[in-house]
Amino acid sequence: MKMRKKSDLPVKLCPVCNRPFSWRKKWERDWENVIYCSDACRLDAKRQKTIL
Fold it and tell me: b/e map of 16-47 (b: 16 or more CB within 10 Å)?
């Protein structure tokens, strides 16, 4: 695989904090299913669902 510049990596927006986050090597096989930028945002989303 050819090296990419960081600015050329795919980007998504986190639905919890609305911040952009970039593709990471550890997400290579599962990038389509990555929703949250961090474990903290993933846990906050679960907390919000239980409150509502």
Answer: beeeebebeeeeeeeeeeeebbeeebeeeeee
* 4-51 pLDDT per residue, tens: 788 889 999 999 999 999 999 999 999 999 999 999 999 999 998 887
Q: Count Cα neighbours of 12 within 13 Å in the Cβ-side half-sphere.
A: 14
Both structure tokens of 6: 């960081």
CA pair distance 17, 43, nearest whole angstrom: 12
> Tokens standing for 31?
């990038």
